[in-house]
Design goal:
The protein contains 7 helices and 10 strands. The protein has a two-stranded antiparallel sheet. It binds 2-acetamido-2-deoxy-beta-D-glucopyranose (2 copies).
Length: 238
């Protein structure tokens, strides 16, 4: 029975990998593959859409620039805010599952990736005293000839730019993210995403907004198990 479950899981994972591949951004691979030497974004090292060398840019705090975007146009981000920004960058560049939410009009982009409310609230809390000048980081910049970003408007605190975590998550990267009504079928950019992803992938993208309550229930149950297991591992290590 266990062997059957493992085989089935292998079939499901390999078919979803083939189905989705990677996004078509400038740093993305065609298909995810292992990257054992990643400096950052190690959540995705078993199956990654970015090369390990991409993550070198994220390895030293303060992070000044990633690809051709400066992160410090309104001063250096605080360490806690930087950490959240890095999680989003890692997901977009490296997650083998990001393409599940590919924007059909623009295949380098994602749309409506479900984030957990708690993740957005924590992110907002971490950044609220940092400053930015772009409401939408994808579009609200002046780009020079080399494609580097410059402020178009004045720098203001995050807490002035966005009303709350929900507003921030749903505005900062355009349509890329939405806050989920579920506390389980949503991503928070840590190991628990494994549980959520498994359930989210079993739904077709059209139905994702009306996720069935049985899927929700199954997810919650798995998450509890997963948390118990993590706690056990933590205690063994002590
Ligand atoms: C990163 O590594 C990949 C594969 O090893 C290579 O194709 C690419 O050119 C490298 N990129 C940079 C910026 O070094
Ligand atoms: C968050 O801000 C939005 C936009 O201003 C508002 O509609 C929403 O009610 C706020 N949510 C909470 C929980 O305060």
């Amino acid at each position: 029975m266990l062997r059957f479950a493992i085989t089935l899981f292998a079939v499901i994972t390999s078919s979803t990998c083939q189905q989705y591949g990677c996004l078509e951004g400038d740093t993305h691979k065609a298909n995810p593959s292992p990257e054992p030497n990643m400096h950052e974004c190690t959540l995705y090292s078993e199956s990654s859409c970015c090369y390990a060398n991409f993550t070198e840019q994220l390895a030293h705090s303060p992070i000044i620039k990633v690809s051709n975007s400066y992160w410090n146009r309104c001063g250096q981000l605080s360490k806690s805010c930087e950490d959240f920004t890095k999680k989003i960058e890692c997901f977009y560049r490296c997650s083998p599952h990001a393409a599940r939410w590919i924007d059909p009009r623009y295949t380098a982009a994602i749309q409506s990736v479900p984030l957990c409310q708690s993740f957005c609230d924590d992110w907002y809390e971490a950044c609220k005293d940092d400053s930015i000048c772009a409401h939408n980081w994808l579009t609200d910049w002046e780009r020079d000839e080399s494609g580097e970003n410059h402020c178009k408007s004045k720098c203001v605190p995050y807490s002035e730019m966005y009303a709350n975590g929900t507003d921030m998550c749903q505005s900062m990267w355009g349509e890329s993210f939405k806050v989920s009504e579920s506390s389980c079928l949503c991503l928070q950019m840590n190991k628990k995403d494994m549980v959520a992803i498994k359930h989210l992938l079993s739904e077709s993208s059209e139905e994702s907004s009306s996720m069935s309550s049985s899927e929700e229930h199954a997810c919650q149950k798995k998450l509890l198990k997963f948390e118990a297991l993590q706690q056990e591992e933590g205690e063994e290590r002590r």
